[in-house]
Amino acid sequence: MYQRQPLHVDDESIDPLMLAMPGVRLARGVARAMNALGYACLPEVPLANGRRADLMALSTSGDIVIVEIKSSVEDFRSDRKWPEYWSFCDSLFFAVPEGFPEALLPTECGLIRADSFAAVVVRESSVNRLAPARRKAVTLRFAHLAAARLGRLTDPGYRASL
Questions:
Q1: Structural domain spans, the chain
Q2: Which of 67, 77, 81, 151 has the most CB within a 10 Å radius?
Q3: pTM > 0.90: yes or no
Q4: What CATH architecture is 11-128?
Q5: For 45-54, how does the pLDDT look when each residue is reduced to its tens digit (9 = 90+)?
Q6: Are 128 and 42 in contact (CB under 8 A)?
Q7: What phi and psi, each to the nearest 5 degrees, are found at residue 93?
Q8: What distance in Å separates the CA atoms of residue 137 and residue 33, rounded to the nearest whole number?
Q9: Using CA atoms, how far apart are residues 59 and 40, in angstroms rounded to an integer?
Q10: 41 pairs with which residues across the strands?
């Protein structure tokens, strides 16, 4: 499904604000890689259970992937909400920087190594197909969120219905 490519790290070309936010840097690299594979990505997606996915990706065939981004071991150990994301995706991945100990991550989840510019899938996720009604609800939420964000970019007075 994915091709391995070397990671590219050049932090001198990144906005200084991005340097202070390692999760944002990883999200950018993952989104670039997912986009290259034909996925549409949205960061910070609120879910119906009150949780928020770091990154959600939708394939052209309707597959839904959630990527939980962990910038450090401490970040991973302090956050145990990830099992609740399975109800809203077909596949769940952790995206981590180089050097993150792979053995800490649950084996049912995929593993993505990322930096600010790119990402590589190291291990595939198990697949748990969503029920059709849940898939429709998640896909509609994704579409409405994307449209609302685009609306706010093009019209500061835009008011979304969500």
A1: 11-128
A2: 67
A3: no
A4: 3-Layer(aba) Sandwich (3.40)
A5: 999 999 999 9
A6: no
A7: -125, 150
A8: 25
A9: 7
A10: 57
